[in-house]
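Risk register update: the risk of archive-format incompatibility is retired. Evidence:
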Amino acid sequence: MTPLQEYLASEGLINMLRTNSGGKNPPQIWISQWQDGTYHYLTTKSTGSIGGEIAPFDSVYEGKICRDKQEDVLQYLQAFGLSILEASEVIEEIGVLPVDPPSTTSAKVHK
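Archived output:
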């Protein structure tokens, strides 16, 4: 995995997805690489930052990607320059819920 993928898989993506709580004006999210090489997400654009997309609403539950939002998250990651394969690897590393969260559906198992 690239350093950006590692950042997203370890903490970045889940924190970014949590920024959209369904309010009237969810923030746009950018990713920036600092001088020390670490990545951080921002809610304001800065020089050299990438992205600017609004996180998919209701896409994370208990630190995992919601199964019914997996495609939305895949597309969201591509807005930050990841290929479909790289985005899929990040999602796989984080994990996808085997069932929909109670807030979304009646928690039935997907096959």
